Amino acid sequence: MPRKQQDPSADEQRGAEAPECQHQQHDSRNDDRDSDAVQDFVPRVGVLVVVLRHVLREGRHGDLLGARFYFFCHSAVHFLPFLAALCASVSLWLPFSFDAAAPLCHHLAPERLRISFRISILASGSSGNSTLLETERTTLLIDAGLGRREITRRFEALGRPLPERVDAILITHEHTDHSSAAAQLARLWDCPAYLTEPTHREIVKMFAEEPDKPGPKATIERVEYIRAGERFQIGDIEVNPFRIPHDAADPVAFSFRTNGTKVAVATDLGYMPELVKQHLREADFLILESNHDLEMLKVGPYPWHIKQRVMSRTGHLSNNIVSDFLADADVFDARARHLVLAHLSEQNNTPDLAQISAEQALAARAADFAFRGSLHIASQRVPLGPFEL
Fold this sequence. Notes:
The protein has 389 residues and is of the alpha/beta class. The protein has two domains: 28-93; 118-388, Metallo-beta-lactamase, Chain A (4-Layer Sandwich). It is 37% helix and 17% strand. It has helices at residues 10-17, 28-61, 67-93, 148-157, 176-179, 182-189, 197-207, 274-280, 294-299, 304-311, 319-327, 351-363; strands spanning 118-123, 130-134, 139-142, 168-170, 193-195, 223-225, 232-234, 237-243, 252-258, 261-266, 285-289, 338-342, 374-377, 384-388. It has a seven-stranded mixed sheet. It has a seven-stranded mixed sheet with strand order 7-8-9-10-11-12-13. Helix 7 links the parallel strand 5 and strand 6. Helix 11 (319-327) packs parallel to helix 12. The longest helix is centred in the N-terminal third of the chain and has 34 residues, at 28-61. The two termini are 15 Å apart.
């Protein structure tokens, strides 16, 4: 969920609400006491080292020391100067002070870990697609195939409200399961839509009420045109659109980077050209289409011309094509912490078939190139996530 502007006094207010604790308020006098303690400790260590060295010399020439005690003194002579230097240096950079007279504070909590990305897959399939991508500063919606009412339900299923702010909506192509709510959601969040110019023209044409009257569903009030191969920045996220083979006007997939972390999303493509494989490399989080099982498609209910379209090089990826990609260590680097199989056909695939096919392919990799991440299946009906990187 995107963050609101924080009041500078927010931390003070949170502190006031917490139980009283004598360590909540930083006292500069503690720093003085700790500094004095370190300054007293260091010369005492020096005196002790001198004494131990004298003992060692005596022990070396007589029977004054047993072997074990001699070894202890020898180790202490080398260790104590290091300990003194460590105490002196640590006292300079510790963000808090120690007071031996006071009990340890049980209210001190570790600082919350910062995330690079949070990913929530709201829906994935032929009836609607939408994924939320968040950083500490920026929120993006990838595809808008769910209307306001349904997308609100998906967020509720994740245990959170509809985001108050989305910085941009990115549209991969004009097919209705990816674009039908683009105009509505862009108005809801008062944000621009990023898409290619041919894709925008097709959306206007598809949803126009009349040829000379686009109507609200076709009218995206703020549009930013993008091109495959040309990177751009939204907030703290670098966005890289790349071309994919699909039967649409100008389809693209996306990869995203921030703080050294990469997310890649590639669905709706008939095969995997070398360019696509290159863009999927080094992804820490990969969403990849696994649309259909070939045998189910061949005997399924679709008309033959639809089956040909789905199986074509501008159709959708089969489980077999995805398995070949995942098994090949030369093209799939297995770096991803999470691999999500997406855009499964409800008529021509099942989650179990897709998962078994992918697991067998990943198991066939050599041990030196094993996939050590987690495999997930995205659903048309139930949201998946959030995942934090």
